[in-house]
Amino acid sequence: MGNVQLSTVWLVLALAAAAAAAASLVVLFIPSELRDPVLRGYRSTRRREALEGSVLLRIAWPAIKLCTHYATLIGAPQWKEKTSLKLRNAGEPMGLSPDEFLGMIIASTFFGLLSSYLFAHAANMGYGIVIVGVFLGLVLPNLWLNDKAQTRLHAINRGLPQALDLFVLSMGAGLDFIGAVRHVVEKWSDKRDPLCEELSRFLHELSLGKTRKEALEDLAYRAPTELVKAFVTNATQAEKRGTPLVEVLKIQAEVARTKRFQTAEKVAGRAGVVILMPLMFIFAATVLVMFGSLIVKGFRGQLF
Q1: How confident is the model at residue 33, as a pLDDT?
Q2: CA-to-CA distance for 45 and 208, rounded, in angstroms?
């Protein structure tokens, strides 16, 4: 018990020393323009909210900035382009750029290396666990980003049909399209919902002088799902041709709801196949518990 507590103390001290060293390097050796990049708008809000809401992120941020300085020296344009797409689909979490995300991966890998090495040394275990620590540090940021992107796009697809219905009801009550969107956003219960955030950005871009077509296209760029793209295409085409937008939105809401039901049916159809394997293991375990002694006696010839 004493050895475990001592190893924990050493691990905490080593991590604190690493964070202090990273902060010192950031202050002393990295140019100020790289230390504190100028962020504006949505990314600035995301960065501020993330740092204010997580003590762990504030502690690790100097190390991430240090690793970002070296990540900018790495080429990999194709990887950074794909990462930029993932960050956009995930809603630009923490206001990260591709270089900053690569810096986070480097910092996470070094953290996994250091923590697993200290744990293996303190617990007198083999250093094969260091490989596991490095692998986890390398993979976990990518898994986190993929999960954020999938969750956000799924939430947008799930909420769009109801939002379109509310747009139609509001426009039927006498509001125009922009007024209907503003009314729905103001009455939205969860302001942190991804669809509410995207509609708020849509309204904000309109207030900055963008046309409705440009703001809608930006919405489809930030949330590139089939439902959102279809909604944006139909809305822009209706504006171009002079078609009543309320009728277009009513049809689009029905189509979106139908696609949602079809997707739910596909997931439900796959559920039986997915659950089959766990049921087989449960059945095998039940048979062993109930008839295990008889099976052993049968193999030994002692059944009768």
Answers
A1: 47
A2: 17
